[in-house]
Write a structure and sequence with these properties.
Elements (H helix, E strand, L loop, with lengths): L13 E8 L11 E2 L4 E9 L6 E8 L4 H4 L7 E8 L4 E17 L2 E9 L1 H6 L8 E4 H13 L4 E3 L5 E4 L6 H8 L14 E2 L22 E3 L5 E5 L4 E5 H5 L16 E3 L11 E10 L2 H7 L3 E8 L4 E8 H4 L14 H6 L5 E7 L31 H15 L2 E8 L9 E5 L6 H6 L8 E13 L4 E10 L14
Parallel strand pairs: 9-14, 12-18, 15-16, 15-21, 17-19
Antiparallel strand pairs: 1-2, 1-5, 3-4, 3-22, 4-7, 5-6, 6-7, 8-10, 11-12, 13-14, 16-20, 17-18, 20-23, 21-22, 22-23
């Protein structure tokens, strides 16, 4: 790997091609200057929980005095082009949003340019105050295209439609408010059943007091999308789709052909697949998940059209096998399964199917109201199908979080899936049978990405925050949930 480029002899090597900056309003011609001789550090960020990518560029200005002579006033266009060790070229396009940490010393200035996508700045000045209506995925794409001039999308079809007044929300705020309310098109909301919460035939081996009685309705299904930007496109996809490797059902394959490998011994060989460092950030935070209602929650619904009050309980144990998972763990661990029988969070909300309905039929899609899924109401209230489901789906995706450092892998994006291998922390005899840790190795989703470029030394490292909802290596048995 290291010898594939004579000019870039190390796995961490890269070549900066240009760092161009244009004056505001003068972007059709040549750039104002090339900062490649002035820049020292460049960092690029993507995050699945943020609607825009960003970066920082550290400039050591000894002769240009750009902050005054240009001058830098904000919204300048910046393009950074680099070439990695495999001779692949990547271009990052930004706008300047801040100048920070400026120091004057010995006739030189050092300052940091804060960089974001153009849409991030335009979004702050756009307010939506017209009715937002239609299929959620379709309308998200239309909103991004019409209001923010976005041309590249990775958007998954949704099953449900909405009609609402945005009350002057920004496009990003409006889309983020719809994330957990969106149901994938390939998921059909399941009919409810009577819950046995408080009187379960599966008697747990621990005693938990609960005032939730028999006969409470039970909700099922899955919901929840994520909205974020990568260097390739704006992404609005279901969490199940992002976790899935089944390309036939809308998932995506693991991006690295060979796993990224951590070695605890001394290894001075140059390799693109070597994990430099690994930190396990968070595992089994049961208290937070209980308070968020990830395992089980109860929602009190009041239908203002009929005056009917109902309570619905959601249990993760009932829907675990219906979800897409990233590990080989087939069941919830026994303690989580037991806790899923007792709601740990209580929520309340108002249901109104009639808000946007002018017909003479039954507006509700709920059998409680003598309605069904075939109602001619285009905008029924779907809260029973997404409220608990969306909260739980996001919560379990954070079951296992870790951070790894690699040599520069500029092809990676937030939302990609990668395969990693961690050595088995056992004695030598046991390691002969199982080289890799069978639970912590496997497939992970890139939650956050940070490319760290040292421009002067022409080296780059990629730091990845990873997450997944279940343990184990695919196609190998896991001890979790047994």
């Amino acid at each position: 790997m290291a010898d594939e480029s004579q000019n870039k002899p190390y796995a961490s090597s890269f070549e900066p091609k240009r760092i161009s900056i244009w004056k505001v309003g003068d972007e059709s011609g040549d750039p104002y200057t090339n900062l490649i001789g002035l820049a020292s550090v460049f960092k690029y960020y993507e995050d699945m929980f943020l609607p825009t990518y960003g970066g920082v560029l550290v400039v050591t200005d000894t002769q240009e005095n750009l902050v005054s002579s240009m001058p830098i006033e904000g919204f300048e266009k910046v393009e950074i082009e680099v070439e990695d060790v495999l001779n692949e070229s990547y271009t990052y396009t930004f706008r300047v949003w801040t100048v920070a940490n400026r120091i004057n010393k010995d006739r030189r200035q050092i300052y940091t340019l804060g960089l974001v996508s153009e849409q991030a700045l335009i979004n702050e000045g756009v307010r939506i105050n017209t009715i937002f209506e239609g299929n959620i995925a379709d309308q998200v794409q239309k909103l991004l295209s019409d209001k923010l001039s976005v041309t590249k999308f990775d958007i998954q079809k949704s099953a449900n439609s909405v009609k609402l007044l945005p009350t002057k929300k920004t496009p990003f705020a409006l889309i983020r408010s719809l994330q957990l309310k969106t149901i994938p098109a390939n998921v059909k909301p399941k009919s409810k059943t009577k819950s046995s919460v408080g009187g379960s035939s599966r008697k747990p081996n621990i005693t938990i007091n609960s005032d939730v009685g028999n006969g409470v309705e039970k909700t099922n299904g899955t919901a929840g999308y994520l909205f974020f930007q990568t260097r390739k496109a704006y992404v609005f996809k279901s969490i199940d789709s992002l976790a899935s490797t089944d390309t036939k059902s809308g998932g995506t394959s693991v991006v690295n052909k060979e796993p990224f490998v951590l070695s605890y011994g001394k290894d001075n060989t140059e390799s693109l697949n070597k994990i430099q460092e690994i930190v396990f950030k968070s595992e089994i935070n049961m208290m937070k998940k209980l308070r968020d209602g990830v395992f089980s929650s109860i929602v009190c619904y009041f239908n203002i059209n009929t005056g009917k009050y109902t309570e619905y309980v959601y249990s993760l144990a009932d829907v675990w096998k219906d979800m897409v998972h990233m590990g080989s763990q087939t069941n919830l661990p026994s303690a989580q399964s037991k806790l899923s029988e007792y709601p740990s969070r209580v929520m309340s909300t108002i249901i109104s199917h009639e808000t946007w309905y002018n017909g003479s039929g039954i507006a509700s899609n709920d059998t409680d109201d003598s309605g069904d899924q075939s109602t001619d109401n285009e905008y029924p209230d779907w809260q029973k199908q997404y409220l608990s489901q969306g909260i739980s789906r996001v919560g379990i995706m954070l079951n296992q979080e870790l951070t790894i450092s690699l040599t520069g892998h500029l092809e990676l994006c937030a939302g990609d899936k990668i395969e990693i291998r961690v050595p088995n922390q056992t004695d030598d005899e046991s390691r002969k049978k199982e080289v890799w840790d069978p639970e912590h190795s496997g497939t992970y989703l890139i939650k956050k990405l940070n490319h760290q470029f040292d421009i002067q030394n022409q080296s780059v490292y990629t730091v990845l925050d990873l997450m997944r909802d279940s343990y184990g290596i695919i196609d190998k048995d896991s001890n979790f949930g047994k």
